[in-house]
Write a structure and sequence with these properties.
This protein is α/β, with parallel strands linked by helices. It has a single domain, classed as Alpha-Beta Complex (Spore Coat Polysaccharide Biosynthesis Protein SpsA, Chain A). It is built from six helices and nine strands, in the order βββαβαβαβαββααβ. It has a seven-stranded mixed beta sheet with strand order 5-4-1-6-8-7-9, sandwiched between helices. A two-stranded antiparallel ribbon has the order 2-3. The radius of gyration is 16 Å and the shape is globular.
Length: 204
């Protein structure tokens, strides 16, 4: 199944105070933690590609350098409209996902999401031919999310800072939910205070 993993690395980090995607954490920029795990995952699935949506040339350059690891199945997608809201990043990713039967949407500020979790989520969605889906922990829905091609037109009509959650909530009866036991895996890092003195991530 042809799947595009849309990796959203284009945020403005307003609450963080600096570009959190490039914030050095445990030896590398924050955005690289989950991305490196997705590269490892995609190396085992030849029909999966990774599209890194970003507004930052530094990230785009680093992603191009990663291309040989996946024989070109990872590439940056520049989205200079992303400061206007998440919907612009999503549209940019979908525009680059020509031929994909579904997309898995990941966010770059979830550095604790495990490789095993990401891969099992995608495999579950793929095997069940899910139309929609997302991870869930203790009843709370979160990222990553899954959208079959059927829902691409709805995603493309999102406006402003609306994200894929808007589409998912319209069709919850069609969604497949993937249970994650560790709340920490799904936590977004939005503020420097969430990072402890020794680099550990602090739960709210």
């Amino acid at each position: 199944m042809r799947i595009s993993l849309i990796y959203l690395a284009a945020g403005n980090s307003r609450r963080f105070g600096t570009n959190k995607l490039l914030y050095p954490w445990e030896g590398k920029p924050l955005y690289r933690h989950l991305l490196d795990r997705l590269v490892s995952t995609a190396s085992r699935h030849q029909e999966w590609q990774i599209l890194v949506v970003t507004q930052y040339p530094q990230i785009a350059r680093q992603v191009r350098e990663m291309a040989p690891a996946l024989n070109g199945r990872i590439r940056p997608v520049m989205s200079f409209d992303s400061p206007r809201g998440a919907s612009y990043s999503i549209r940019a990713g979908l525009g680059a996902a020509a031929g994909a039967e579904a997309c898995g949407c990941f966010v770059a500020d979830q550095p604790c999401l495990k490789e095993e979790t990401a891969e099992n989520f995608l495999i579950t969605m793929e095997k069940s031919r899910a139309e929609l889906g997302c991870v869930v922990c203790r009843g709370e829905r979160g990222n990553p999310a899954w959208f079959s091609r059927k829902y691409f037109p709805e995603l493309e009509k999102l406006e402003g800072d609306q994200g894929g959650r808007k589409v998912l909530e319209r069709h919850l009866d069609q969604a497949v939910f993937f249970e994650v036991s560790e709340e920490r895996e799904l936590m977004d890092l939005d503020r420097p205070g969430q990072i402890g003195r020794k680099g550990s991530v602090q739960l709210p």
